[in-house]
Amino acid sequence: MRSTFRLVLLAGGLLTLTGCFNRLDMTAVEQEIEAEIESQSRRLSLAEVRCPPDVYKQSGAYFRCVGYLRPEGEFTINVVQQDAQGSITWDVPSSSVILNMGKVEDTLRQDFAQAFTKRATVDCGDLYRLNQPGEQFECEVVGGVAVGADQVTALVVKVDPEGNLTWYERREAIAPATTVSNPAGTSDADDDTSAQSATTNTTTQENAPTGGDRPKIAGTREVERPRVPGDDD
Q1: Which of 18-32, 122-136, 142-156 has the lowest average pLDDT?
Q2: pTM of this structure
Q3: How many domains, the chain?
Q4: Which of 20, 130, 181, 222 shows its CA 20 to 30 Å from the CA of 213?
Q5: For residue 198, is pLDDT > 80?
Q6: Quick check: is 192 in a domain?
Q7: Is residue 91 domain-shared with residue 104, that is, in the same domain?
């Protein structure tokens, strides 16, 4: 079973900033957004965030900033004013450059529920991540979820050469519990040394390619190519 989703927006922060002559303090906006994005990802280093120089305070007004990665790459930051006092919210849509992992987690949870009719808590780590074709990373299924005789412990996400995402589950076999009774005349100490602990085996569920098609991955969910800065999002 396959499903497709488009990576969209996720709220990134709330700031209250004031400026002179009824304008927002855009230097403070840029510095605060840059610091927040870097603090929410250990893998991103920003050269700067650049916003429009003059923005008047106006409730509901919208503007865009651009984040510049080090050494290269740029992405869009959408900003909305919440009131006339300088409060704003901002978010970073996923693109061909950056992934909003909060939105990826939401979609993985939905796909997991559809595939297995069970809920899962998915943790992909940092909130923002570079969108790098050919890379793969794991998102933890917190606490594991039993599926038949196995337990799903993680979802492995792959980025294909076009920048699209697919995933498959990583499983561990659930070993049956071993009960050891005390034979007549044996002591508790003897029982402790004879007890056996349960073990688990890690397995990756993948299917072999067929014909000239690219490999089909068990549990795969395909993701539509993210929008790039400048799209009408």
Answers
A1: 18-32
A2: 0.65
A3: 2
A4: 130
A5: no
A6: yes
A7: no
